Amino acid sequence: MRKKRRCSVLSDADALSIMTDVLSELGCETPPKEMLRRISQCKNGTDQAAQWPELPAVWDAYHARLRAFHAVDYDDILLEGLEDALQAEPSAASPFSYLLVDEFQDINDLQYRLIDAWSRNGKSLFIIGDPDQSIYGFRGSDSQCFARFFAGHPGARRICLTENYRCTPEILRCALPVVRAPGEASRQLRAMRPPASPVRLVKSDAGFGEALFTVKEIGNLVGGIGMLEAHNALLAERSGLPLGFSDIAILYRTHRQAALFEECLQKDGIPYIVAGREDFLSDPQVRGALAFLRYLLDPADLLSLRTVLRCCGLPEKELLAKYRPGKNGSAALCALLAALPEEEPPLLRLLRSLSSPGRMKPEKLLGLWTDLLHLSGYGPLEQLMRMAVLHRQTPEFLEDLLFGQEADVQRSGARRITADAVSLMTLHAAKGLEFPVVFLAGVKNGLIPFHREGLAADLEEERRLFYVGMTRAKDILYLLSADEPSPFLSAIDSANLLCQSPPRKKPQGKQVTLFD
């Protein structure tokens, strides 16, 4: 096997920065995110480069930058793995005698080919998945991957799990009709839990009305305010066990819906955690702060070093041309900074003060970087700080940001760690999780199914996404709708829903917190 040079893995933010520079130099007006999406699609086998005449030049320039910085993107890792597997002798033993693949419905074409190559000449291939939870079509996944698998493995044994031990019968009776497209057969899935409370359909004003109802209802459920009779019954069904904040999740279709929920939760003093990759991670100052952390852990990361020098207003080209990383951390950079003719840079003083940065908490390092650039109170960096407080070690923090799934990327509602907190996340981030209580927000036309201007919605995938959100609830499910409800609600028998209409008047006077 050929020896490969050690490379850094490109973060989404770094890829966007490089692509922005490339497109600017080439005079290409395609948005950087769109161009990155096209390149990823080509690598994953879902589209052909010939569809975009400008792509070859951009492709060459982009990958030349990656080689210069000794970096690869995530797709390159898969492609190199596939190349190695295909170059092996046909009779060679598989690198995995027993290969198990979970969440098979999420794979794209490139990942399918990699699994196929890895399992060649192996003893056993075991895949686990649910086509009704195939919700990543925008990443190239295909719910027909199971049909493709059985066509390529005619001797495979199929085991269907038809008993559901998570959701109450009431929740399944509402969720199963939603996922079934017109003309499809009914799903064979049986609830193994005893009957409980009906699913609640709450019709209120979109946005503020949903957030206000949800937060007040959370207060009722955890016992912060006098219990209503209905909630006494719900708690009795849970064998008298009290609900905690961590038992509750608020799910939504887009990150933008979270702002009002956060505002209301903060006013009532309810702790919460937001999961998922939010827009602030693309902020230039946030990218600079993360590059600073990555450089401290890996002085050979030239791309992160470039970003750090840019943020500090230092001559990046001159310093990078002379930079030779060594074994003594940032010593090589300190020597170059000390040789600059200008006054001693503040970055040099900061680097000299850090004896063991790898052992420092990410929150502390981010605070030092923020002070260096006089950015205290800057919103996006404050949000990043609320992510950092949830991690004790910097390597773990950076790894979650780079490789973690949506649910792994979390920030606290405040700059402190709270063990018992309400979870806020998108429907995509919630897949694979479960909560005793779920508030599913924005069940209205335009959000569920989600409509983008100029793009047709994939209604079948949107059905599956709604189904995934509903079945995250174990005991209690609230569907928060508006005047123009989601068309998917029409699939649910109204007899299986308990309709509620909360007061629409906004509260007057001072808001009392839950813990006053």
Keywords:
516 residues, globular, Rossmann fold, 4 domains, 11% strand, eight-stranded mixed beta sheet, two-stranded parallel sheet, alpha/beta
Q: Could you explain the architecture of this structure?
A:
It is a single chain. This protein is an alpha/beta fold. It folds into four domains: 8-78; 88-159, no CATH class; 169-276 and 409-500, P-loop containing nucleotide triphosphate hydrolases (Rossmann fold, 3-Layer(aba) Sandwich); 281-406. The protein has 20 helices and 14 strands. It has helices spanning 12-26, 32-43, 55-68, 74-87, 109-119, 145-152, 169-179, 208-222, 229-237, 258-267, 284-297, 302-311, 316-322, 331-338, 346-353, 362-372, 379-388, 394-403, 427-430, 459-470; strands at 8-9, 71-72, 98-101, 124-127, 163-164, 190-191, 199-203, 248-252, 272-275, 410-412, 422-426, 435-440, 473-481, 497-500. An eight-stranded mixed beta sheet has the order 10-9-11-8-12-13-7-14. Strands 1-2 form a two-stranded parallel sheet. The chain has a two-stranded parallel ribbon with strand order 3-4. Strand 3 (98-101), helix 5 and strand 4 form a beta-alpha-beta unit. Helix 1 (12-26) crosses helix 2 and helix 16 (362-372) packs antiparallel against helix 17 (379-388). It is globular and about 80 Å long. Residues 225-233 and 235-240 have low confidence and may be disordered.
Strand content: 5-15%
- Highest CATH level, the class of the largest domain: Alpha Beta
Q: Separation of termini?
A: 66 Å
Bulk shape:
globular
The count of helical stretches stands at: 20
- If strands are numbered along the chain, what order do they take across the biggest sheet? 10-9-11-8-12-13-7-14
Strand runs, count: 14
Whole-number mean pLDDT: 88
Pick out the low-confidence regions: 225-233, 235-240
Number of domains: 4
Structural class: alpha/beta
Q: Strand count, sense and closure of the main sheet?
A: 8 strands, mixed
CATH topology of the largest domain: Rossmann fold
